[in-house]
Amino acid sequence: MSQIHVRGLPGDVAPFVLLPGDPNRARHIAQTYLDGAREYTSHRQLLGFTGTYWGVPVSVQTTGMGCPSAAIVAEELARLGARTLIRVGTLGGATPSVAPGDLVIATAAVPNDGTTRQLLGGAPYAPAASFEVNEAAVQAARAQGAPHHVGLIMTEDAFYASTPEHARLWAGRGVLGFEMEASAIFLVAAQRGLRAACLTACSNDIGDPQLVPDDVLAAGVDRMVRVALEAIATLAAREQGERTGPG
């Protein structure tokens, strides 16, 4: 049965799914990094593609901007057979230690958004990434020599509400940067028994209205996607080994 928003059918979506917010980035990832990629949905411009990376089936599914859209997409992907969700997007840095183009691998997301609050009925909760996915991502980042940081991020709703003072306050509490989808993806994944992670490339310092130069950000996005795909390859190999290993 097709889903309401992600108009794919069972079998269209791979167990491993990359989640960019931007449909243009979804198409770029599919065309640049995957073999034999085909589009399975374009409904509402939530573009979705499935191909392979080193023989491993991988989907790339647009989430749109913000937690409401991302939560819908994550929920429907779970119904379509996804098992590992990895957000690949951009992040506003909270501290100068996160340089333009750097990779940030989130351990958890402070849920400063309305979607997780509604899903939880206001209960306190700490949306967190899956350790084994993060472990594979950190290994891939180290192997590729990609500048990276591992730690806490914050998910927010109001893009233009963040100020340098707000950023430095939360940097003092360990937050590396701010984005708009991770907490909802982590929560829905936990509710549906999926693994989830969030990899982002730093696009700007909070308070700076200008993004980093296009070439710097493009290089950071390239490193981010390659790290995510190598992490998927590692996870798939481990799973295959578990299936074929001694009983």
What report would you give on this structure?
It is a single chain. Helices cover about 40% and strands about 30% of the residues. The chain has about 250 residues and is α/β, with parallel strands linked by helices. The protein is built from seven helices and nine strands. A five-stranded mixed barrel has the order 5-8-7-6-9, surrounded by four helices. The longest helix is centred in the last third of the chain and has 31 residues. The termini are far apart. The radius of gyration is 17 Å and the shape is globular.
Q: Mind telling me the CATH superfamily name? A: Nucleoside phosphorylase domain
Distance between the termini: 36 Å
Number of domains: 1
Number of continuous helical runs: 7
Give the CATH architecture. Answer: 3-Layer(aba) Sandwich
Order of helices and strands: EHEEEHEEHHEHEHEH
Main beta sheet: strand number and arrangement?
5 strands, mixed, barrel
| Anisotropy-based shape | globular
- Counted beta strands: 9
Name the structural class. Answer: alpha/beta
The percentage of residues in β strands lies in 25-35%
Helix percentage:
25-40%
CATH class identity: Alpha Beta
Q: If you consult CATH, what is the topology? A: Rossmann fold
> How much is the radius of gyration in Å?
17 Å
